[in-house]
Amino acid sequence: MQNFKVKKPKFIKAELRESTVCELITEASLERIFISHADANSLKAKNLAIDEALLERVSFAGSLLEKTAFLDVHLNACDLTTVHCSDSSFIRTVISDSRMTGMDLSRSRVKDVIFENCKIDMANFRFSKISCVHFINCHFFDADFL
Q1: In the β-sheet with 109-116, what is the strand arrangement from edge to edge?
Q2: Three-state secondary-structure class, residue 76
Q3: Model confidence over 99-118: pLDDT tens digits?
Q4: What residues are paired with 91 via a beta bridge?
Q5: Is 85 exposed, middle or buried (0-12, 13-18, 19+ CB in 10 A)?
Q6: pLDDT digits over 10-54, tens only?
């Protein structure tokens, strides 16, 4: 078995500015943000770039986030149920204590990502490029990794 080290997100929490879900709607590039306890359900944003961010207890259930780039992001206790993130990228990202049931990550790039204590049932990773990924204490049922 090959031993590899996953690179963790690079940001300092104290340097993040508090933000709102409204900024996510702008479909722009967002850097050094912190969003907590927010409802972004059914959000529609293509080509969104999120760099150096901490998102805690944000619900994205049913959102369309195609071609979104997550770089140096920590998603903690988020609801990612049925989020459509095809053709997206997740680089140096941690997703912890989150629900990802039915999440679509097809054709995405997933590199240096840690999934910890997540429910990843019926998630779609089909045709994704996955490297340096750790799944720690995650629950999978009917997930597709073709």
Answers
A1: 17-18, 29-39, 49-59, 69-76, 89-96, 109-116, 129-136
A2: strand
A3: 999 999 999 999 999 999 99
A4: 71, 111
A5: buried
A6: 888 889 999 988 888 766 889 999 999 999 999 998 889 999 999
Chain position carrying tokens 């999120």:
50
Closest CA to 7 of 123, 110, 85, 87: 110
User: Whole-angstrom distance between the N-terminal and C-terminal Cα of the chain?
Assistant: 21
Neighbours of 126 (CB within 10 A): 15
Whether 1 shows a pLDDT value over 90: the answer reads: no
78 within 8 A of 59, measured Cβ to Cβ: yes
Burial class (CB in 10 A: 0-12, 13-18, 19+), 114: buried
pTM value is 0.92
Classify each residue of 17-45 as buried b or exposed e, where b means 16 or more C-beta atoms within 10 Å of its C-beta: eebebeebeeeeebeebbbeebebeebeb
CA distance 118 to 56: 14
The rounded distance, in Å, linking the Cα atoms of 20 and 93 is 20
